[in-house]
Amino acid sequence: MKKYNLPVILLKGIILLPHNTLKLEFDAKNLDNNVIDMSLLFHDSYILVVSEYKENNTKIGVLSKLENILQLPNGNTRVDLKGIRRVNIIEFLNFKSNDPLESIVSEIEIEKVENEQIIINKLKKELKIYVNNIPYISNGVLSIIDKENSLDKFTDLVVPNIINNKNRLLEYLNNVSPVSRGEMLLKDIYEEKKMFQIERNLDLKVKKEMDETQKQFFLREKMKILKEELGDSSKENDFDKLKKRIDDLDCPIKIKEKLNYELNRYQSCVSMSPELNIIRDYIEWLLCLPWNNYTTDNNDLRQVKKSLNESHFGLKEVKNRIIEYLAVNQMSNNKNGSIICLVGPPGVGKTTLAASIAKAINRNFVQISVGGIRDESEIIGHRRTYIGANPGRIISSMKKAKSNNPLFLIDEVDKMSSDYKGDPSSCLLSILDKEQNKYFSDNYIEEEYDLSNVLFILTANYIENIPEPLKDRLEIINLSGYTEYEKLDIATKYLIPKIISKNGLKKEFISIDSNTILKIIRNYTKEAGVRELERQLDKIFRKIVTQIVLDKIKINKLIINEQNLSKYLGKEKYKYSNKTKEQVGVVNGLAYTPFGGDVLPIEVNYYKGKGNLILTGSLGDVMKESATIALSYLKANYKFYKINYEMFENDIHIHVPEGAIKKDGPSAGIALTLAIFSALTNLKIPSDIAMTGEITLRGHVLEIGGLKEKSLGALRSGIKKIIIPYDNDIIDLPKEVKSNIRFIKVKNFKEVLEVVKHE
Ligand code: ADP
């Protein structure tokens, strides 16, 4: 292989490939000037150009020729270096001396390329596409290569036009195989094209987004102007206000996202669309709910007790149980699973007590009544797809509560019913369940709402009617009816001062003595609680105020007494005669109704018939069975009781007034039996005697419930003696009841009869 030596020029930062020309200017003082001289003098203008020299690594140089040499006035030399072909560098000479650098090189045999034209054509085709697509590549490169038919030359000419990367250019320089360089080029073209496409897509996307926001901005501004022209900029203003409210709202991120989503829908909705108001209402609901607002609990239970005493008379046991409940709640950090349920007749202070608790522990107070609810959507709302849909009562109350941890009173849980539209009581169960109510979901609101911080309190009139699964979860606290004297205390200490200040009167001006209040209690009300009493007192004071305002009279002192009471309240509504009356076929039973205890007269008649038993007065199944048992017992024991058996061939009619009120339960058993007996045997029964007790087919008298309420009802009605089952206790009955009524315990019906005959 032919070897020869050549002067050397080292290039730094530039790479010269064969067939390309480089313009260089040599410094007059520089050693390189000598290299040029050497080349011109001894090597016929040939010179070796070495790009990016690296010791032990640089193996390939480019045999080049110096052309167009120009001496500049400042002594510098300008030349064109024209690369000719690659050569192998065998060694460098004079590297460490001050003499011009020289090298010994040998020629490289160029490999023969098969299918050269096909490869070139392919490259040309791709290159054309590439150049046409990419704006920053000059298509001058196409004219350079157009007529080129040698792959070796083709690649070297094209590469510097496309590749910028120095290392990649060095790879091209060091690659002596034209075919391999062709492949490299094709790969690079593809790569560049791909990169360009990605960049372009990115550009397009960004541009599109910018265009879109610009467009929206433009349209919005235009719309604003149009609306202002038309005097209708309300929606736009509304949008801005809503946006601000959403930004300021303290709520979970999910809710904020939902609000923004709905706000955009609102924005894009045309003014005439019915959707508009639906979306607007929905946004308003989400904005008004207390997501993260809390009140701070007052944990000082002494103070709580004090304020409960201030608001409610008596109820000592009830208050203690509430304080205990609050203490446990405090210790367990509100995780106490049970829920208080206040059970008692109307007007005994359940609702107001709950409100007082709320005030005392510094929680907001809200209240709903679930009495009569059949459809669970009343509690958990309707889907937004329904026209006129709204959230249910729970969410509506949370909005009113304005805090996330109110005291929430659910009234009348014993009066829910269920039908095909769902079971409100099971729905209520999931609302009360601490495990589930964290994720409470209202159909309308759609998003979860956390109810776990709410303190729920329930109320019911009648424990028996609370759905069983619900009852299981409740901590029942009984509030029984009040005695007359308790009512008197409530009236003097609580109700009258409250009403006087409500009506803007002064305490000193009005005097109403205890006897007058008792008269109101006895003759103008008949109730377990004090609601009606409060209403009557309210009526008196309203009349006084009207009188003062209308007649402009000056009053120094106004006395309300038993004599002038009717001036304010009209005729007495209830009268009690103490005269003992005796009747045949009428017996006083005792009932425990949702309105408290009451006397329940049972009437029996018989007439010629076929021995049928006729029952009227809205009696429930259990009470009907009691009547059948009563009759069977008397039939079976007719000899013992000396009843003429033929009497049973008559039709016997039992009626329990008042007919419209539903009655049930087994506790009228002895009263029913005695009423039948009295009718059939003409036995007179004193009307100041009442009785309660279940009867068996053998005539045994079994224990009953609700004695406290029943005896209070009896006291109100002027009953003097009550026959009760032997197993019932009277220890817990109010003192007033025990001192006014005589309780006589019986084990069986025979003893009932003894009592009636001999008392
Ligand atoms: P309920 O919810 O049991 O039907 P409320 O709480 O509505 O009864 O009470 C009716 C009225 O009676 C209220 O004005 C209440 O202040 C008054 N009240 C009931 N019990 C008491 C009591 N123990 N002390 C003072 N006021 C009472």
Q: In short, what is this structure?
A:
With about 750 residues, this protein is an alpha/beta fold. It is built from 25 helices and 26 strands. The chain has a seven-stranded mixed beta sheet.
- Domain module count: 6
- With strands numbered from the N-terminus, the spatial order across the biggest sheet is 19-20-18-17-22-25-26
Architecture per CATH nomenclature, i.e. the level-2 architecture of the largest domain: 3-Layer(aba) Sandwich
- CATH-assigned homologous superfamily of the largest domain: P-loop containing nucleotide triphosphate hydrolases
The separation of the N and C termini measures 151 Å
The profile of the biggest β sheet is: 7 strands, mixed
Mean of all residue-level pLDDT scores: 86
C-alpha Rg (nearest Å): 53 Å
Which kinds of small molecule does this entry bind, naming each only once?
Answer: adenosine-5'-diphosphate
Per the principal axes of the C-alpha atoms, what is the gross shape? elongated
CATH C-level of the largest domain:
Alpha Beta
Specify the helix fraction band: 40-55%
Notable traits:
759 residues; alpha/beta; Archaeosine Trna-guanine Transglycosylase, Chain: A, domain 4; 5-stranded mixed barrel; elongated
Walk me through what this model shows:
This protein has 759 residues and is α/β, with parallel strands linked by helices. It folds into six domains: 3-107, LON domain-like (Archaeosine Trna-guanine Transglycosylase, Chain: A, domain 4, Roll), CATH 2.30.130; 116-205, no CATH class; 233-288, no CATH class; 301-478, 3-Layer(aba) Sandwich (Rossmann fold); 484-569, Helicase, Ruva Protein, domain 3; 586-758, 2-Layer Sandwich (Ribosomal Protein S5, domain 2). It contains 25 helices and 26 strands. The strands form seven sheets. A seven-stranded mixed sheet has the order 19-20-18-17-22-25-26. A five-stranded mixed barrel has the order 1-3-4-5-6. A five-stranded parallel sheet has the order 8-9-12-7-13, sandwiched between helices. The model has no long low-confidence stretch (mean pLDDT 86). It binds adenosine-5'-diphosphate. Adenosine-5'-diphosphate (ADP) is lined by residues 312-315, 346-352, 490, 494, 529-531, 534.
